[in-house]
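The data are quoted verbatim for reference:
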Amino acid sequence: MKGVNKPSAPCGEDEALALAAQGGDRAAAETLLGRYKNAVRGIARSYFLEGGDAEDLVQEGMIGLYGAVTDYRADGGMSFKNFAYLCASRRIQSAVKSASRKKHGPLNRAVPLPGEELGALSVPCDPEAALIGAEEGAELWARVEGALSPAELRALRLYMQGLSISAIAEREKKSVKSCENAVQRAKKKVLALLGR
């Protein structure tokens, strides 16, 4: 694979380590995971995960690599190195495809209301509590507006309206990556304001 730091190990050593790891040798498994971690990072660099960051893809690739360690078969006709690249690449590609389906988009974007319990939904609304809640919400939104840059605020508002990152990028006439970063920065700042 071009541009990827491929581990240099004598032929057969990785296969022996994989078989030892499958036999319960944790040190062998850790050696293989450490040996191929940079290769996984290299594979992950060539993909983009909507709603995630590069480390999410590296983690997915490492899960694929661990699967390669546990599932490798010497009689499979493939070297461990090739099997490891295949498993890590497929796991990363699967994560990217899954994210692009947006099947769980509404759940991923859902934000719980502070202090709202499922049982409380059936309790009649107290007008005083509703007024105080509205005032607190307005105060929080004013703090959010003060904490975010204009680009972050626009991106967050559009995101909260249900627009995808690519739709926000199109509307803002910016790159998808730029808008994704703006939304991620905005989320972190809002969470910091909420004290989470």
In short: Residues 13-101 form a domain with the Rna Polymerase Sigma Factor; Chain: A fold (CATH 1.10.1740.10).
